[in-house]
Amino acid sequence: METQSEVPPLRILSLDGGGIRGISSLLILEHLMEEIRDAEGLSYVPRPCDLFDFIGGTSTGGIIAIMLGRLRMTVDECIREYREVAQKAFTPKRMTFLPAPPKGTFSATALEEAIKNTSKKFCTATECASQRQVGNPTNRTCPHGMEFRDATCTKTAVLAITKDNVDALPTLFTTYDESTGFDGCPIWQVARATSAATTFFKPIRVGRDGVEFVDAGFGYNNPSEVLIEEARRQFPSHPQIRVLSIGTGLGDVVSIGSTRMGIIRALKSMATSSKKVAARLENQYGESAEYFRFNVAQGLQDVTLSDWENSSTISAHTKNYLQETRKQIQQFVRHMTGCTDKHKLPAIAEIAGDPAGKKGGSVVHLIPLLKNKNFVERPEAVRIKRMLFDGNTQVALVGLGGVGKTQISLHIAYWAKENLPNYSVFWVLAYSRASFEQSYAAIARELNIRPNTEDKDAKTSVKQWLSSDQVGPWLMIVDNADDASILFDSPKHQEGFLKYLPHKGNGLTLFTTRSREVALSVADDAWLELHSMSEKEGTNHFRKSVHQKDLLPRAPFFRLPVDRVDEMRQRGLPGGRAYGQLPLDDLSHMASDGRKDEQRCFKCGNNGHWARDCRERSDDEDRCFKCKKKGHWVRDCRESSDDEDRCFKCGENGHWAHDCYESSDDENRCFKCDEKGHWAKECTRR
Questions:
Q1: Among the record's GO biological process terms, what is one (predicted)?
Q2: Is the dihedral of CA 203, 245, 238, 44 positive or negative?
């Protein structure tokens, strides 16, 4: 058992504001990442989201923090994208010798559109990530709103202040926040809030209560102090820190081409506040290895906030600065790589808890879904819980889609969190290869595991860590494990993800699946089938979900998938509110936006399906815009060869490539068990 002093230091990245000068911050960060790559002998430049535990920023530094932390960009991707955003957003609406107008010098709409485009281009949703992996851009096809909150990403925070009280402490928008007031805020709104300096961009109203925000650059342009304090709150068991603070080259004297005195005063204020914070932190940490500050001291004073065309000047001065600070850079890399030794696993007490509960550290609870406060206890939940904790290390819950498998698993996850203080809880989404990899990447970040390569070693390291007998107890939920081709090795020799699930150690694994074959393969006889709710259970669940209780006595009984009701309730859709505001006779025909137009989808305006089931289509009736053929939605489209319905994988007619599974030469002989009568995918023998 490692002592508290051996817990890896908490790594914090802080980014100043400064308009287009944010390019300087990114060039410095890129150089540092490349130096770390060389020092650790990596074959790739590490992403900041994989190296740092906490990323934050103010103003345009906040936008960069969102790109690096929430959207998980590489520094190279961030530089390219930030240049695009700067070009679109930091162009003055007009030039004049008069003071800047109250609504700001630059177009807030242009900034909003630029951030929305970036969010779609780098959307982290599984569908979009999968599209980009095969070379399809998602900036035009992404249907997601990209909420800023995300429990699986590196903890990210950006600063803003309320317009009504600019002297108050800044508000922190964080990816891990659970408050109701800012629930559902999209990335673009948070980016606007952190960059809404009144001299530059107009303020923005955010959240349920419409709080008006301006950026925190004038008082907190260097957010390091605020971020250090917040990071310590989020990671209380880390006694040591490693802070990387990067400035934007704001000097003592700001000379810009514009004569708008408001901008000049604003930049001077930003420069002054940044220097004061830097001086305080340097005095506090001195020559220790806990705090490093990099900031181009000279050469950028004459670069205006919006001078994106002059980015070459920024690059030149930044490269000169990097040459001048080689010793400081080497010192930073030495201390940073020392605390991210990829051959050393983090402290057991820190990750999984001490079984005796006598030593320092905390367990990890990585549950990306909120607790369902309206959960109705079902007999199956009690039985599956008993199966898990009475000697079975792997248990499976089987049932059709929508019967409540995920909700029961979520209930068990939170039950373990609240009643088993020594248990860590992990949640793995297994409905696609991309979702599985993202889940394991999140676990690796939470466990401070630094892989040798970006993908394979991360999964292997997580498995090795959780398989150790020295690690404290843990519970893993593997949700939506429906596709056997993802779990098991495929005919094309693609690795199945079952090999990355720990099969020993002090852990328990609960699978949810629609497939009995999968359940038998992963849990042998330790599986339970879940059926639809009984009338009594459904009534109790509905009573908990609605708010207008007086309508219930005259409500007819009807069935809805339990996950649909819970999802609509959590998103503020009819499952939780509007159901109590309409005659219940209309419920079976209510659209997803709460209107009474016979299941009219508010996304495309057509009847007959819920908004969640809506996929874009072309003008022609049901014509797929991917293959231009009628008869199926784009999400259901799989490429086929020129011959009608000829599978391009096996060359035979009659099925899509997606449905093709290789078989042996004999008619329908399974190559896994060598028996006739079924495809390899349907084989339950391992």
A1: glycerolipid metabolic process
A2: positive
Please tell me what DSSP assigns to residue 667: T
User: Which helix (H) or strand (E) element contains residue 465?
Assistant: helix 456-467
3-state secondary structure (DSSP) of residue 683: coil
362 and 501 part of one domain: yes
| Ordered alpha helix ranges (H), 47-125 | 48-51, 60-65, 75-89, 108-121
Domain final residue, candidates 309, 338, 367: 338
Span 306-315, pLDDT tens digits: 555 666 788 8
pLDDT at 98: 44
Same domain, 153 and 118: yes
Return the DSSP state at 399. -
- Return all residues near 134 (Cβ < 8 A) that are at least 6 apart: none
Structural domain that includes position 544: 533-590
Q: What's the mean per-residue pLDDT of the chain?
A: 73
The pLDDT of residue 543 is: 58
CB neighbours (10 Å) of residue 588? 11
192, part of any domain: yes
Per the DSSP assignment, residues forming a β-bridge with 289 are: none
The answer on pLDDT for 124 being more than 50 is yes
Task: Please tell me what DSSP assigns to residue 576.
Answer: T
* Beta bridge partners of residue 669, listed in sequence order: 676
Q: Are residues 407 and 318 in the same domain?
A: no
Give the model confidence (pLDDT) of 188-197 as tens digits.
Answer: 999 888 886 6
Residue of 215, 307, 479, 566 with catalytic role:
215
pLDDT band at 557 (very low <50, low <70, confident <90, very high): very low
Q: Which of the pair, 502 or 329, is modelled with greater confidence?
A: 329
Structure tokens at 382: 């009690």
For the CA atoms of 419, 421, 424, 430, the dihedral, rounded to the nearest 10 degrees, stands at 10
Annotation marks residue 215 as catalytic: yes
**Signed CA dihedral, 51, 273, 202, 307: sign only:** negative
Partnered with residue 106 across adjacent β-strands are 92
Q: Facing residues of 508 across strands?
A: 475
pTM as predicted: 0.53
- Helix (H) / strand (E) containing 574: none
Within this chain, do residues 605 and 521 fall inside the same structural domain, yes or no?
A: no
Q: In Å, how far are 122, 352, 362, 461, 499 from 474, measured between CA atoms?
A: 32, 7, 12, 16, 18
Residue with tokens 């409540």: 404
Question: How many domains does the chain contain in total?
Answer: 5
Catalytic residue among 14, 24, 25, 59: 59
Residue that is last in its domain, among 529, 553, 579:
529
CATH assignment at residue 486: 3.40.50.300
Residue 180: CATH number of its domain: 3.40.1090.10
Asked if residue 596 belongs to a domain, the reply is: no
Which residues, other chains included, contact 288 with Cβ-Cβ below 8 Å and sequence gap of 6+?
none
294 with 395, same domain: the answer is no
| Same-domain status, 293 and 403 | no
The SS3 assignment for 614 reads coil
CA 189 to chain CA centroid, Å, is 16
Q: If pLDDT is split at 50, 70 and 90, which confidence band does 464 have?
A: confident
Q: Assess whether 537 and 523 both reside in one domain.
A: no
123: three-class secondary structure by DSSP: coil
Domain assignment of residue 51, yes or no:
yes
Is residue 457 part of the annotated active site? The answer reads no
The DSSP line for 198-216 is: TTTS--EEETTTTEEEEES
Instruction: Give me the sign of the Cα torsion angle 635, 636, 641, 643.
Output: negative
Mean pLDDT along residues 507-525: 89
Does residue 345 lie within any of the structural domains?
no
pLDDT at 589 over 60: no
Identify whether residues 40 and 167 lie together within a single domain: yes
Q: Encode pLDDT of 597-641 as tens digits.
A: 444 455 555 555 554 455 544 444 455 555 666 655 554 555 444
